[in-house]
Amino acid sequence: MQYKNILLVDDDTDDTEIFQMAVASFDSNIKISIENNALKSLKKLKETTKFPDIIFLDYYMPYLDGSEFLKLLREIKGLKKIPVVLYSGQAGSAIKDVAATFKDVKFLKKKSDFRDIVDSLKSIIKSETPISK
């Protein structure tokens, strides 16, 4: 499964720029939409008919944390089966608990080395096995 339409929900502009550069380094045809507000992101998802193939979600966000976002996301018809990757610089127990609670959610720790970022994103985005469905 190669994901071609990605939604990144992250309020850190440096992280979003690095994410975009990393993905572009291995596939410039992938479309990345960025939302820096989880509440606005959910509102837009409710109003659209063109859903992303996969969502990368920063856990620590203003207004809604990753857990709250996931609970609300899974209530939206058509979005229940979209793969979600918790993408966070922290690897605390709260994040791991969320990933365990939502069995179809994968956790990916943000890396500091650009090559590591590219490799970890590529392994998910270009994977032959879908995260969930």
From TrEMBL:
Response regulatory domain location: 5-125
Q: What keywords tag this UniProt record?
A: Phosphoprotein
InterPro entries attached here? Bact_response_regulator (IPR050595), CheY-like_superfamily (IPR011006), Sig_transdc_resp-reg_receiver (IPR001789)
Q: Which Gene3D superfamilies match?
A: 3.40.50.2300
Kindly list the positions at which 4-aspartylphosphate occurs in this protein.
58
PANTHER family to which the protein is assigned, alphabetical: PROTEIN-GLUTAMATE METHYLESTERASE_PROTEIN-GLUTAMINE GLUTAMINASE 1, STRESS RESPONSE REGULATOR PROTEIN 1
In Swiss-Prot or TrEMBL terms, this protein is called Response regulator
Where does the UniProt annotation place the signal sequence? none
For this protein's source organism, the top of the classification is: Bacteria, Pseudomonadati, Bacteroidota, Flavobacteriia, Flavobacteriales
Q: Which organism is it from?
A: Flavobacterium ginsengiterrae
